Amino acid sequence: MAEIAVIGAGPAGCAAAIALRRAGREVVLLERSAAPRESVCGEFFGPDAAAALATLGIDPAALGAIPLRHLRIGHGARESTAALPFDAWGLARRRLDGALQSAAGPALRRGVTVLGAQAEGGGWRLRTSAGEVSARRVVLATGKHALRGFPRPASPWMGLKLHLADVPIEAAVALLPCAGGYAGLQPSEAGGANLCAALRQAPGDLLATIRAGSALAARLLRDARPLWARPLAVAGVPYGWRHAGEGPPGFYRIGDQAAVIPSFTGEGMALALQSGLAAAEAILAGREAAEFGAAWRRRHARPVLLAGLGARVLQGWPAGFAAAAPLLGPAFARATRL
Ligand SMILES: Cc1cc2nc3c(=O)[nH]c(=O)nc-3n(C[C@H](O)[C@H](O)[C@H](O)COP(=O)(O)OP(=O)(O)OC[C@H]3O[C@@H](n4cnc5c(N)ncnc54)[C@H](O)[C@@H]3O)c2cc1C
C-alpha cells in the first residue's frame, strides 16, 4: 500500500511526484516507457513553464534550451514577423522529461503500464503490467492517453511531430497554417528543427501538406531532411476539453487528463507542470480531489477558452492573426497565462 500513486511521468506527473516527495510523502510514480523518449509536442515554452521548472529545481538552459525571440506567421503568399512578447524557449521533450524523471528519484518505476484503477476500501487498487499496486490516493497524469475506464471525448484532431535537419529557422517559432490545421516549427537540439502539427486528418505526406500551406512554409522546409523514419503521431486530441472537476474521492486529475489547451496558442506544458504542483499542494493540505478539481477547473478556464479562440482565428483567418499579433500579442499572452 503506497500513500500516493502517480500514473504517468510526463511534466504533470513528475511535478506532482517531485513536490510530494520533497514534502516527505511516500509516492510511487508509474511510467510505462522504459527510458525518456520524444513526445508529440511543439517543444515551445514560456515564463509560466520556466517558473514551474525553477520551483522543481530544473534549469532548462543547462539542458540546452534554445531561446526564441520572434514569432513568424505564414499566410498564403505573405508572411509576418513579430517580437515574442515574453521570454520563450524550445527544448526537446526527451531531454525535459528525462530531467524531470531523474528529479523524481526513487519514486519512479519505469516500464510499468497501468491497465486500470478501481476504488477499494477507502483507497485505490491499480492493475499494472507489473502486478497490483494499492494506494490511498491516485494522481492521474497519463497525458495524451486515456486510462481504461476514464475516457475523454472523441476528437478528430491528431498531433504529428518530426525532427528535421536543414531548416533555416534561427531563433524563431513559425506558425504555419495548412489544409486541415496548422503547424509550429522551431529550432530543436543539435542544430535541427522540430515540426509539430495539429491536423484534423492524417496527411499523406506531412512535409508536403505543410509546405503547400504558405510561401513561408515552402521556403523554410525546402531542403528539410527528416531525422526520423516517420513522424510520431497521437490521435484523438480533444482540444478545448476540460474535465468537469468532480470525480471519485482520492482521484486527482492533472495535465492533459484535466484539460487540453489548444496547441501553439496555449501552452500545455505550463498547464501540466502547474497542475502537478497544485495537486501536490492540495494533497499536502488535505483537500479532497473534488475540491482540487473544481479549483483547477476555475483556474484554467480563461487560458483554455482564449487559446481555443486564438486557434480558430489562426486557422480561419491567418492574415488577421498575423496582423493582430504585434498589437494584441502581449495582452493575449498575458490573458492565456494562469
Ligand atoms: C500537436 C501538439 C503540439 C503541442 N505543442 C506544445 C508546445 O509547443 N508547448 C507546450 O507547452 N505544449 C504543447 N503541447 C501540449 C503538451 O504536449 C501537453 O500538454 C503536455 O505534454 C501534457 O503533459 P502531461 O504530463 O499531462 O502528459 P504527457 O506529456 O502526455 O505525459 C504522460 C506520461 O504518461 C505516460 N503514460 C501514459 N499512459 C500510461 C499508463 N497507462 N501507465 C503508465 N504510464 C502511462 C506516458 O508514457 C507519458 O510519459 C502540444 C500538444 C500537441 C498534441
UniProtKB/TrEMBL annotation:
InterPro entries recorded: FAD/NAD-bd_sf, FAD/NAD-binding_dom, Geranylgeranyl_reductase
Pfam families: Pyr_redox_2 (PF07992)
Domain (FAD/NAD(P)-binding): residue spans on this chain: 3-97
SUPFAM superfamilies assigned: FAD/NAD(P)-binding domain
Annotated protein name in UniProt: Dehydrogenase (Flavoprotein)
An MF annotation (GO) of this entry: oxidoreductase activity
Organism, scientific name: Belnapia rosea
Highest taxon of the lineage: Bacteria
